[in-house]
Write a structure and sequence with these properties.
Length: 418
Amino acid sequence: MGSRKKAKQGRSKKKPKTSADQALALDYVRAWAQPAASAPPSVPSAADAAGDDFLPHQAARVASGGGGSVLFELHSHSNHSDGFLSPSALVERAHRNGVKVLALTDHDTMAGIPEAMSAAHKFGMRIIPGVEISALYSPREIAGAGEPVHILAYYGMCGPSRFDELERMLSDIRDGRYLRARNMLAKLNRLKVPIKWEHVTKIAGEGVAPGRLHIARAMVELGHVENVRQAFNKYIGDDGPAYATGSEPFAETVVQLISRTGGISALAHPWALKNPHAVIRALKCAGLNAMEVYRSDGKVDGFSELAEKYGFLKIGGSDFHGRGGKDESDIGTVKLAITTLCCFLKMARPIWCSAMKDILLKFAEEPSAANLGKIVKFGELINFDGFSSMDAGVDIVNLCLCSWLSNDGMEEVELEEC
């Protein structure tokens, strides 16, 4: 009996990560994540060859070795969706909290990414262009019916390889958010909780599709509820009497689109799902890469085992909105293990590199101002002033590669001359 118990215990133990494993992971992550202002904006040197495929040369490598860690924040929001802070203010707060790599994942928009990248450059930080996409899980794929699901998408510094295709989906979702908000206000009015449309849109800001948090804030300001949490619990939560859906696509479709456009997909806050096993099983078949498990409150609620069962990378983030209060974690409070970050980057880098290659090749085939705009939408070019004509497509492609890739990265991309 005792021997069987010991054997069972032995099988359940995982091989611990050695200090050597952690040191190698730290070197790998730091080489990608931590820029230094000392590197000249020139052709990559041999010393850069051990570094990353995507780090611009003004962000040089940090020497390998040494202790410490690298803080990634993989879930945050700005005022381009339902956050309180501008992308610049969000980046500054993250910097103050020690964040080295920030993923801006606004709801259904990537409009704040350029401002965030510009602000991050001043602090020597890296931005992962991201977005949190609103979706529905419906086992029978019935339009407008099903469980709300949020999918995080993470892209490389060039952004999605088919940005127009992604933006069409995001635009449709944003249009649906306007309709959903109006339907919620109509339901609230019938519940004797009157709110004017102008009040909600003023809170959301110009050009921002209104979400539930904007409605909740209006409810607080008008004295209908004491706080945002009460607004959700009593009225506009998923099961609330004033809840409404918009024009969200099916979750499997979203995951497939993220994969097709060169991104990494992750299931956001699975603990909020009513039927997590069915959702996760369906998204696994669709190609989901990761799921949030780690939370700032230290709870994992059994989702770690579920992620392991389906082979997902386990990640996490603060889901920071900047509204303040005791119920919100500050940005950078979820500290992922260095080995987790290493696995994330080793999964993402080849996918991001392939997306960059697609973007550059499309420009080389059709060198136009519109296609050039897609290249520089998220990535910064060095010594770009010398190009006054769109005729030199291959030359601009080579300039992009010299700006963004190290020597080993150049070899990996293997672009053929056009």
